Amino acid sequence: MTLPQHNREYGTKEYWNSRYSDEAPDDTFDWFKTYADLADDIRTLIPDKSVRILMLGCGNSKFSEDMWDDGYKNIVNVDYSAVAIERMRARNSETRPEMQWYEMDVRSLTFPDSSFDIAIDKGTMDAMMTSSSNVWNPPEEIVNDCIAEVSEVMRVLRTTGSFIYITFGQPHFRKRFLTGEHVPNTKLEIKTLGEVFHYFMYVLRKEN
Question: How would you classify the pairing of strands 157-167 and 199-206?
Fold first, then answer.
């Protein structure tokens, strides 16, 4: 695994394309938590395994593969790294041929409105925040990028859809992106995960 010289590189397409190119096709990496760690929470939040799920910034994580193997057979994966998408599509072509993979930027999704029931982000928004060390007052570009992602997610979610965001970011740093005028008619729930080092699961639900 190629580590960046500066954390801000985590927020660039060039870094991820280079990193995935240097790794073996079957290499995997999961930010924060694996599906096994979160399976009980996911099953509670998504009891209907037939719903259409959008995985935002999938990278080479096994998360969607493990969800698929747990019975969620309607998963669409996106990432802006063409290398990651090509490799993941090839890796799953025989074992999970119906799973979909698209090169796409989460800030500018090309799906029609109201296309998904669930959207999941596990570390993607966090990567966009790495260009600044000022978590209390990030620059306008970062704020706009994060709001753009959340706005796009809200657009492609159906009227009863939910956005699940998994991160190490504490509520006083993350709530600004999940509340406000860009997310009208929504309800935000926050669950703390872990005992020593805490992670957080934000669930933003659309409400009619």
Answer: antiparallel
Q: Which residue has tokens 């259409």?
A: 52
Neighbouring-strand partners of residue 192: 200
Q: What is the pLDDT of residue 139?
A: 82
Query: Number of C-alpha atoms within 13 angstroms, CB side, residue 45?
Result: 24
Strand 186-193, strand 199-206: pairing: antiparallel
Q: At what angle do helices 140-156 and 171-178 cross, to 10 degrees?
A: 60
Find out whether 71 and 94 touch, Cβ atoms under 8 Å.
Answer: no
Strands (E), the chain: 53-56, 75-79, 100-103, 116-122, 157-167, 186-193, 199-206
Which DSSP symbol is given to 184? -
**Tokens representing 24?**
């073996």
For the segment 172-196, what is each residue's pLDDT rounded down to a tens digit?
A: 989 999 999 999 999 999 999 887 7
**Model-wide pTM > 0.85:** yes
User: What pLDDT is attached to residue 7?
Assistant: 55
